[in-house]
Specification:
Elements (H helix, E strand, L loop, with lengths): L13 E14 L1 E5 L8 E10 L2 E3 L2 E4 L5 E7 L2 E12 L9 H6 L13 H8 L4 H15 L1 E2 L10 H7 L1 E2 L1 H14 L4 E7 L9 E8 L2 E5 L11 E6 L2 H4 L2 E4 L2 E13 L15
Parallel strand pairs: 8-9
Antiparallel strand pairs: 1-7, 1-15, 2-6, 2-14, 3-4, 3-7, 5-6, 10-11, 10-13, 11-12
Helix pairs in contact: 3-5, 4-5
Pfam families: Transglut_core
InterPro entries: Papain-like_cys_pep_sf (IPR038765), Transglutaminase-like (IPR002931)
Protein name: Putative transglutaminase-like protein
Length: 275
């Protein structure tokens, strides 16, 4: 029995994430990497970049909503990137300004909410808040089949719905588009996802409901409470883990790791915020 007044043990969630990339740079290029955990996390990090074995030092460029880009100029050769972080505890997701809420109501390249309005209103009439998020998550999850390699990088929400299959970004795009069509601000987030199988970077949706950003993951492949934010934006065009500008580079190896000290259960009917 605990003695009266005895100190309580505070259990802090620990998450370890890693990413490894190998690129064949064929022509001098500027590379932008979105692999680092977003600002606000209590994290110990390491980032090592080499070109043909010679260390390079990328410059960190802040982007929207805590996204941290690491940008470097690389000549031809074999570029190797290794990132790792230990994340202690959870962080608070910032709120949304009026400009944010308006921005994430608009159609975007991969989330054609203007085209999906009739579908959204027919399927989810009368629903709001927590009930709406649960309904959209379940509807998308049951309408689509998760099939690796089934979609193109240029596919948006409309094509995903017609094809009835896709990967995590396709699920997230469709969720975002349906919610925006119902006047709910929604955006896409790239995350590390402990419990994901097969392991990779993951994409989920966030919706502004009851005064906070709530996570929606129609794939249900990883517990939402363990996800670690990396990049946030309108859709995949804002959240790519790698962008190549002004040259040519081929991705030849890519590995991701994400573990948590204890993997919790999840329920799509529960409101969850990233942290």
């Amino acid at each position: 029995m605990r003695a009266a007044g005895a100190a309580r043990t505070l259990v802090v969630m620990l998450r370890d994430v890693t990413a490894h990339l190998t690129l064949d740079v064929r022509a001098p290029a500027t590379l932008a990497l979105a692999l680092a955990v977003a600002t606000g996390h209590d994290a110990d990090e390491r980032l090592e970049v080499t070109l043909d074995g010679v260390p390079l030092t990328p410059r960190e460029v802040p982007d929207a909503h805590g996204t941290r880009l690491h940008v470097l100029d690389a000549g031809p050769g074999t570029l190797v990137v290794d990132y790792g972080a230990t994340v202690r505890g959870r962080t608070t997701t910032p709120g949304a300004s009026e400009a944010d809420r308006l921005r994430y109501l608009r159609p975007s390249r991969y989330c054609e909410s203007d085209s999906l309005g009739p579908t959204a209103r027919a399927e989810f009439a009368g629903l709001a808040g927590q009930d709406l998020l649960a309904a959209v998550s379940s509807w998308v999850g049951t309408r689509l089949a998760y099939v690796p390699g089934s979609s193109l990088p240029t596919d948006g929400a409309v094509r995903t719905l017609l094809a009835r299959q896709g990967v995590c970004r396709d699920y997230a795009h469709l969720v975002v588009a349906l919610l925006r069509a119902l006047d709910v601000p929604a955006r896409l987030v790239g995350v590390y996802a402990p419990g994901l199988d097969p392991m990779d970077l993951h994409a989920v949706a966030e919706a502004w409901v009851d005064g906070a950003w709530r996570v929606v993951d129609a794939t249900t492949l990883a517990p939402r409470s363990t996800l670690v934010r990396v990049a946030t934006g309108r859709d995949a065009s804002d959240t790519a883990f790698l962008s190549v500008h002004g040259g040519a580079a081929d991705l030849t190896a890519f590995r991701v790791g994400a573990v948590v000290d204890e993997l919790p259960d999840d329920d799509v009917r529960t409101l969850v915020t990233l942290g």
